[in-house]
Amino acid sequence: MTSPNLIILYVKDPGESASFYRNLLNREPAVEAPNFVAFPLDGGFTLGLWRRSKVEPQPSAIGNRGEVAFMVAGENAVAKQYEDWRQRGLPIAQELTELDFGPTFVVLDPDGHRLRVCEPDK
Fold it and tell me: What does the pLDDT look like over 60-111, one tens digit per residue?
């Protein structure tokens, strides 16, 4: 059986987005081309950043229709991650708050993609 292992975000400028994610993830991309950048992630996943104008077939719309979530475990781990990203000056779309599934917050990447931090499911 096949399993998903690649998340692709459509971006305006892969170089700008690569700089953002290089800093955010504290790692270097495995692939860095003019129209596509790929960062290997833990657990066998890869984050791809594809120049929006080169996507085939072209997407029918753009906007916030999903999120990339980072689950962090440990006592006050979400709050610690919030403080780290806030101090880095990342754009906060949702301040640290408590929702049905626990503490969470959302930041935005250069293209407005929503990056949510939350606790793993128990």
Answer: 876 667 899 999 999 999 999 999 999 999 999 999 999 999 999 999 999 9
Residue with tokens 């029918």: 60
- The whole-angstrom separation of Cα 83 and Cα 98 is 15
Instruction: Give the phi and the psi of residue 20 in degrees, each rounded to 5.
Output: -60, -50
State pLDDT tens for residues 2-33: 888 999 999 999 999 999 999 999 999 999 99
3-state secondary structure the chain: CCCCCEEEEEECCHHHHHHHHHHHHCCCCCEECCCEEEEECHHHCEEEEEEHHHCCCCCCCCCCCCEEEEECCCCCHHHHHHHHHHHCCCCEEEEEEEECCEEEEEEECCCCCEEEEECCCC
* Prediction pTM value: 0.89
